[in-house]
Design brief:
It contains 3 helices and 2 strands. Strand 1 and strand 2 form a beta hairpin.
Length: 83
Amino acid sequence: MSTVRKRSVSIGGHRTSYSIEDAFQAELNAIAETRGISLAALIAEIDAERDSETNLSSALRLFVLNELKRARQLAPKNILQFQ
């Protein structure tokens, strides 16, 4: 089971915090690394695109979910068959 942890990041020169599970944090780190950007830069992008009614923690989780769904759609079908 993944523990929810409170984390801090600077976005546009302002410190803010978010709380997400370790598994989501690991995926955010991997996505940032794949894109060749810092974690803070990725979070800033997500923050800029979220609507005002979605908190940052939820926006981060939804971003990870959408990225994983997109990757699944791009992957060859035989790789993703579950038994």
